[in-house]
Queue: 2 jobs
Job 1
Amino acid sequence: MYDVAEQAGVSIATVSRVYRNPDSVRPGTRDRVLQAARGLGYVPSGNARGLASRSTGVLGLCFPDYADPDAEASAESDETDAAEMMLYSDEIIRGMERAARRHGYALLIAASLAGGPESLVAKVAGRVDGFAVLARTVPTEDLEVISRRLPVVMLAGPREIDHLDHIEVDNAAGQRELTRHLIADHGYRRLAFVGGEPDSPDAEARFRGYQAACRESGLPVPDQPDLRAEMTQAEGRRTAAALLARGGEPPEAVLFANDQMAVGALQALERRGVRVPGDIAVTGFDGIPLSRLVRPALTTVRQPTRHLGEQAVELLVRRLADREREPVSLMLPVTVTRRASCGCPGQD
């Protein structure tokens, strides 16, 4: 910084303002400083800034490892653009990155791979000013400790810690509306629901919405999903095959707890010569970009995943500005997207 100031003929304070608040420096002076910095290869030190301001300029995101080998393999193929394979966590990351840039923050991302989320969250907490955590990624007791020092926003799932800011989408209402559409608009009566694992709060909320729609329509209300599975394309293929192998009358429509499973099911049904929606209707949940690219295009519930990430940053920034403000809990609405896989005309 001293060298940049000397070469540009300005004070050290001016160099600092160029990087901290560029609009406060006259354009000619700002350009001279940046040109000198480029010539010298100068990059501001985040560590030094943190020591001076007691902040890092970084926000964190901690989420489970949602890797789906099938989706990743497809994204790496020559036939499919990787950008079209965006999954749930990718959209949250994109939303957070966009909002973080707007507020002058960088984003540190940690997926809970082997080694455990406990060690990851400790590392992240020491390097960020605040962070967002997807539900069930980090033990509640660990979050309680960390939230005494850092702002924490919980994403998705039920609100488990009252004093933390929290955002979720209306999973139950979305699945209820989609199920009612299949029953009332298409006349399907034999339905099957493929849920996620019991520790997935979003999948469980979606099943409750399914139950509510069945109850309102006078259909049998199951206590449990017809099948449970990890929410991947491979498991969607497996569960679709399992439903066909059960014997008796097959379901008229199968509702999957997320789009990835539904996409896998479409692949399995096509291989077996089962027509969708002619023989069986298929629906998903999430609204990932892949849902409109498969054939038939997938009827789904689109949740505002990118907006979820953006709102997480907004809450963190507000909390950093006022640590005493009342905690906020947001419920974001979802929309049913009706496409060909349930028998509707194409729509986007």
Job 2
Amino acid sequence: MRHRKRGRKFGRQTGPRHALRRHVVCALFLHGRIDTTLARAKDFRPYAEKLITIAKRGAAARQADDKVVALNAYRRLLQELHDESIVAKLMDSIGPSFADRPGGYTRILRHATGRLGDNAPVALFELVDFDAAGGEVASTEPAGAESA
């Protein structure tokens, strides 16, 4: 029985499972929206939201000119994601866009049909402020404002 056993193993050992989690979340941050299995989306959602919270705090610290907290947030994200370009995007655009949101940064939408081949339940895993027309995360700045 699986009493008090949290999380899914996805048929992998620890190292490959952490790599899978890192790659799915990096793809989410890079593209803003991905198609994945429902189990992966449900299992990796808290991990993605924790990383966005770290980026949000780091962006707020950078805005307040607190270099120690901002550097700590950057290093924590780099330690988890292993990709400087994704961390930079997370700190520069994704984190500040959720500055006034207390949580719930991602959404999971189920597809009506299963995956071709094994009929596994598939879901759309996306950031809440993802702009489908532009393919980017929507900015919170007004249209006429310029960034300094």
